[in-house]
Amino acid sequence: MALDLFTPHGFFNPSTTGFTIVNSYSTKGRLLNTSSVPPDIIFPASPLPTVTLWDLNIHHPTADPLRVFKEDELVTSTPYFDRATELGITHLNTPGVFTPFSMSLIGHPGVLDLAFACPLLAPYFSEWSDPLLSTGSDHIPILLRFEAPLSRAPPPAPNWALTDWPTLESSLKAASISPTPLLPTSRSLDVWFKTNLDRITAQLALCTPVKRVTYRSKPWWSDLLSLRRKPYNSALRSLKRDRFDAALLASARAARSAYFKAIKKAKRDHWSSFLASATPQMIWTAKRFAVGRPPPWFPKLPGPTTPLELNKALLNHFFTSKPARSFDTILLPFKDCPALATDEVGRALARSSPSSAPGLDMTPNSVWKRIHRVAPHLIHDLLAPLVAHGFHPSPLKRLMVSCSISLENHPTSAPPLSAS
User: Fold this and answer.
1) Burial class, 132, CB count within 10 angstroms (exposed 0-12 / middle 13-18 / buried 19+)
2) What are the backbone dihedrals phi and psi of residue 256, each rounded to the nearest 5 degrees, phi first?
């Protein structure tokens, strides 16, 4: 059975508007060492992205590498995997994970439920797992997950754990903020703020390496697991050359057991270390790790159908465009506005949470707190003219919340400088 699903915007490929699901079940054919469904039916040459799900009652080393195969099993299954190789089709099963279990408790478990994806669909495959409970059948349910493609790779993020703070602190202490314009306007004050802010962030970038975080990054991975993985892969390659060697089979099973036991131990140790050092502020983070993250989604509004359209609709509704000014007026300081004190900046930063998500500049609250401890004059000299003139520059929109400090408690007749 082949099912063609069509999507309005080409979910997997902009040039196509759908994808195909091929579901097959086969038994032994009339001829010796054949199945009732031939390979060209299982793997059609479809122009659409295609995923193939089937139970052919065959066994192959690609799906079950630790099984000892009979010659007739290899003769039956090899044409199907050769056909998949010719078309560039990818096998999605996790090797060695059993999918059928005998109901009589006499037969051995095996791998019969197989999944494949064509080259158009394989890049979007993210997970093959069996987390669901048995439905009473001898086959267990399998969960396949395909994720929407990203328009571009995630940008590299600063690795603040490796920041060269001795060098950075000396440069921050020697840095200074340039004087404000004599007759500041909204445009000139905006340029002044951006210029001085870029000088500080440039020093941060010079002393901080970058990293590219992906969904495959695991905090519990270690060099020991990399060493465990090498003998495991080596034993599997040796076993594929001679599958009837009992010593190679025992070595492969031992290497596999040691590798996966080391992974489980690393996960347990990382979780125990996380709970041991957890603070009351990290309770929601611990709950998210324990329960798991929900699937990605975005709220719905009448009309918008994509995240980009939804973003545009929200911006147009809440942030309506104002008519441009015909001329740029001079900003006069408020006479009754007291000067901003350095300790006010420190108190505002102290109230900010170190676990809050950073803004577009990717600088967390902990970094700004340390900058203020090392050179308290920098952030103070940046914000003092803004408070005096009641002006909110546009570069604050790309900063984290704590840097654009909310000074509603500051006694001033100027409009409050709210957080961006």
Assistant:
1) exposed
2) -65, -45
Contact predicate 349/402, CB 8 Å? yes
392's CB contacts (< 8 A; 6+ apart) are 386, 404, 417, 418, 420
**In whole angstroms, what is the distance from residue 63 CA to residue 152 CA?**
33
**pLDDT tens, position by position, 210-231:** 887 665 568 888 878 888 888 8
d(CA 171, CA 203): 8
Instruction: Give the DSSP H or E segment for 53.
Output: strand 50-55
Percent helix, strand and coil across the chain, each to the nearest 5? 40, 10, 50
Is the predicted pLDDT of residue 413 greater than 60, yes or no?
A: no
- Retrieve residue 119's tokens: 């080259």
More confident residue, 396 or 264: 264
In this structure, which amino acid lies at residue 95?
Answer: P
Q: List the beta bridge partners of residue 91.
A: 116
The DSSP-derived string for 255-300 is HHHHHHHHHHHHHHHHHHHHHHT--GGGHHHHHHHHH-PPPP----
Bridge partners for 22 per DSSP = 2, 52
Answer whether 128's CB lies under 8 Å from 85's CB.
no
Give this prediction's pTM. 0.48
Write out pLDDT tens, residues 25-73.
887 766 666 777 888 888 887 778 888 887 878 888 888 887 888 888 8
- Residue 128, helix vs strand vs coil: strand
Q: How far apart are CA 302 and CA 310, in angstroms?
A: 9
